[in-house]
Amino acid sequence: MTSDNSMSTPTELPACITRDNLTSPYFPSLSFARLIAVCTLSGIFMLTAFNRLNHTDLWGHLNFGRWMAEHQALPATDPFATAPAATPVLQAAWLSQLAGYEVQTHFGNEGLALGHALLVTLTAGIVMLAAVRRGAPALWAWAAGLAMFLLDLPIVGTIRPQLFGQLGLALVLLACAEMPRRTHPLLWLPVVAALWVNLHGSILMGIAVLGIYAASVSWTAWQEAGGDAAKLLRDRRLYVVWGALLLVLAAACLNPHGPQLLARVLLFNEHAALSSISEWRPLSPLSLTGGLMIVSVGLAALLARCSAKKWELYEIGLLLLFGLATLPAIRMLAWWAIVWPVVCIPHAAAAWRKRLADRAGEPAQAGDEPTAMRTVLAMGFVFMTLLVAPPTFAIVAGYGRGEGAITVTDTPIYVADEAVRRDLSGNIATPMDWSDFLVWKSGGRLKPLVHSHVHLTELDTWRDYEAVFRGDEVWLHLLRGHHMQYVLVQKKRYPDLLKAILMEDRSGQGGVRIIYQDQRCLLAEVLPAKPVAVKPAS
Amino acid sequence: MLARISRFVLPVLIVAGALAVYRMAAVGPQPAAVVLPRNMPTVIAPRINDPRVVTDAQLAAVLDRVLPPADPVSTNNFVHALRLWGPNADFGDAKIPSGRQLRDYFLSDRAFRRWAGEQAPPLFFRGRDGIEVRSYDDRVTDRETSSFHTDDLVATLAETGVPAGAPLVLRDGQARVGDLLTTALLRAHPEQLEYEWTTIAYARYVFPHPGWRNKYGEKINVDQLVDQILKNPPGIGPCNGLHRLEALVVLNRADDEYRALQPKTKLKVLTALKWTSDVLVRAQTAEGYWTRQWPRGAAASQPGKDNPATLHDKLLVTGHHLEWLALAPEEVQPPRETVIRAAQWLARTLVEMDQKDLLEAYGPYTHAARALCLWRSTEPIDAWKKGTATASHQVAATSDK
Fold first, then answer.
1. What H or E segment, with its residue span, contains residue B253?
2. N-term to C-term CA, chain B
């Protein structure tokens, strides 16, 4: 027989189940909101880590990094192209180029992939924190991280110095969320700015955000002071926000160009060749970028109506500035992807709360007591993420994926390997997006006509490059005019040039000699023109 | 303080410890990139002996036209001669390289230099990736003594039964045929222009081992190889793309022995062979030959001004087609009449054509001669000797009369 007192009522669980053996002062406990945040960041890390190394300017930046490491100096002009333009190199990303090169040298391509994933995850973490500091409930932090990742999709897959810029912007937004109540950003913001200005030339984005924020705070203070200048001057908030702006401006001058860098960055996109680069083109509504932009703008408009939270002047200013800036150049989406979640997610949370309140009266405050079990769950999630993400698995396993598996399929690894095997050196006309990798693999012995840093190319050279790869009749004349020793052509992208090279090779006229072919490309040696026999004057 | 530090450090240590345990328990060392499971290459012998395709006398006469040429020395001619005649051929004539000499040309740099000259750069050398082959495109000079097709040399060594462990005497040391094969497989990649001979070498030395990992870290398996072969439109590629069909039948025959292809892949192979066979029936000309236009089917059966064909093209295409058909399974064979008409045209033409023209394209024509031998399931040297003996006997009988 079982005694009654040994039985539990249906609502009471036995002690062996309810006993929490995990909770201890030596082991952390996690709230549900933080568990979700950890899962979100793990997911972002994992998804980013699956990106392969892009074939475009990543290798160009590494080339610059290698040049700096080898020469212990910054290049004054383009050190890679056949005939570099007189345009001086803008030293706005030298630190990230050098850092990228050092990471590649010491940790290989897997190190680059890991650094990429860590950088994006860190940025997402800062964005989530900034959204929470701006008033979003902790349980909504995941939404900010996810929104950033989704809006960033067209860009986030490529390792570029711009990723550092995105991190810088996220930190500035975090600083804006903290100020003026707290002043600690005044300590670290100048450090961020000094690093940012040497890591990527987008420091103006941070300055713009701080400027708008300072103006907004000033306007609010002016209204609160009721036009009383003396009262306004005593407002501590103004000193904090304008002080922060001034400190950032001062720190932004700590770069190889000094204050001139800011002006030069503004003029950067004036090179005609940049219009040929997809990321500098205007936004198309039919593209993924356009779709993301339309959806995010639509949601922002909806939140403007539904949010119970007051829209501050600087929030509107940020959305307007970065929204409009994205229209003429899709690469600006990178900044929109950071600004939008920080501004809009707190409003989305407020709108959601209002909706719940409208439906069921005042919503009950859900308890979110931290527990150690959630920490264990988070650790399990992190553990699985580290095993599934290729670069961390490479560390765990002790071997990497190999060049073919870690680079995107557009990377010319086979022809580059063949060029190295043959020890080719000299001038080469190659598709712009392949040039960087060829320079990288050949250790700078191959000098491309044009590479992805097109803003360093003379306009005439750029036009000749376009004419050659269009397969214009003068292609061989132009190649010889630029003293090209080799020409590399992608078969599908440049069928006219391919046909011209094949015909020239088979004609026996000695213009070119094919030295390597695979299914994707053809590499030919450009032979010098035969001297024309001139009949001596009698 | 200790509790605070512990709260930060403990989770990190636990995760790191779990990863370390996982590594020890579940992650082994990286498997070898290339595994050579056996020493001897798979023998793929012919199965049909049909004298209606070509008679003994015709075969002997054809073979007599394609004896190994030694002058001028050409690696391409030597490899084709070795492939046709095999390592046991002996013609009893010091001017004609024997099968052993042909094989040694590839296995020993000393033998290579005896034929190609002391100054000839080595055919095989220790390169960055292992034992590399001097290819046609590597340099402008010495092209005659270079390899013309990617991995055709190692594939031919496989076809002629050279073990993977056979020594390969280099100018600067010694290696093994297996090293040559390993380098070929390491350098193979999905964008390779010509992968037929790589596939044949793989099929004979490595299959049924499912694949390998190349130097770029990419895994290449037999299904990918088949897809690569079937990806390109028929008729496009070196030798009219017909080496691809040879690679398919070799792989299929190797699978008949090992039963390792996935049913889906096997079906793809057989379907492609059957499709080609059906097209060939429609594309055959009245005389019996095929042209480079064969993928067009019936439209190719009447060469005219619109689609003229040179004798070389006819011989090349007809010879290569008969070669793979000889090794193809029964279920994909065209009607025997189609084969007989093609073989008879081939035999007649090879016997009648100018010797100078024949030597200028010796390589492709050996495919034709090999095809005829395969259809009779006979060793070329035996058929040739038999024919020579018969001819001598007839000459002697005539003299006696």
1. helix B243-258
2. 120
DSSP B205: H
A404 touching B (Cβ < 8 Å): yes
Each residue of B71-102: pLDDT tens digit? 888 999 999 999 999 999 999 998 999 999 99
Task: Name the residue in chain B with its Cα closest to that of A392.
Answer: B19
pTM: 0.88
Which residue has 């000839």 as its token pair?
B120
Question: How many whole angstroms from its chain centre is CA A238?
Answer: 33
**Residue B137 near chain A (CB below 8 Å):** yes
Taking the C-alpha atoms of residue A146 and residue A152, their distance in angstroms, rounded to an integer, is 10
Cα distances (Å, whole numbers) of residue B356 to A173, B53, B317, B362: 82, 26, 20, 10
- Check B193 against A518: CB less than 8 A apart: yes
Q: Does A513 touch chain B (CB under 8 A)?
A: yes
Distance of alpha carbon B66 from alpha carbon A252, whole angstroms = 80
Task: Give the list of residues 6+ apart from residue B153 with CB closer than 8 angstroms, or none.
Answer: B75, B79, B106, B123, B133, B147, B180
Q: Which pLDDT score is estimated for A331?
A: 80
Provide the pLDDT confidence category of residue A6 given band limits of 50, 70 and 90. very low
Q: Is the sign of the CA dihedral B319, B323, B324, B328 positive or negative?
A: positive
Is the C-alpha dihedral spanning A181, A184, A189, A192 positive or negative? negative
Chain B residues touching A399 at Cβ < 8 A: 30
SS3 A105: helix
Q: Cβ separation of A402 and B217 shorter than 8 Å?
A: yes
The reply to whether A405 touches chain B by the CB within 8 Å rule is yes
Is there a contact between B111 and B101 (Cβ–Cβ < 8 Å)?
yes
B235 phi-psi bin (left φ>0, alpha ψ -120 to 50, beta other): left
Chain B touched by A357 (CB under 8 Å):
no
Residue B166: burial class (beta carbons within 10 Å; 0-12, 13-18, 19+): middle
Q: How far apart are CA A226 and CA A228, in angstroms?
A: 5
- Cis-peptide, bond into residue A10, ω within 30° of zero: no
- Please determine, for residue A531, whether its predicted confidence score (pLDDT) is greater than 80: no
How many CB contacts within 8 angstroms connect chain A with chain B? 83
Q: How far is CA B125 from CA A179, A281, B36, B102, B191, in A?
A: 69, 50, 21, 19, 24
- Smallest Cα–Cα separation from B383: which of B58, B45, B47, B50? B58
How would you classify the pairing of strands A486-490 and A426-429? parallel
Dmax over CA atoms of chain A, in Å, equals 135
* Interface check A28 vs B, CB under 8 A: yes
Residues in A touching B18 (Cβ below 8 Å): 383
Query: Is omega for the bond preceding B208 within 30 degrees of 0, making it cis?
Result: yes
* pLDDT score of A3: 43
Residue B12 near chain A (CB below 8 Å) = no
End-to-end CA distance of chain A: give it in Å, rounded.
Answer: 135
Contact B7 A28 (CB under 8 A): yes
**What ipTM was estimated for this complex?**
0.89
Strand pairing class (B211-213; B219-221)? antiparallel
On the CB side of A516, how many CA atoms lie within 13 Å of its CA? 22
B172-177: list long-range contacts, CB under 8 Å, 24+ apart. B172/B125, B172/B126, B173/B126, B175/B124, B175/B126, B175/B131, B177/B107
How large is the greatest C-alpha to C-alpha distance in chain B, in angstroms?
Answer: 120
CB contact under 8 Å between B2 and A26, yes or no, is: yes
Structure-token match 């070669």, residue found: B323
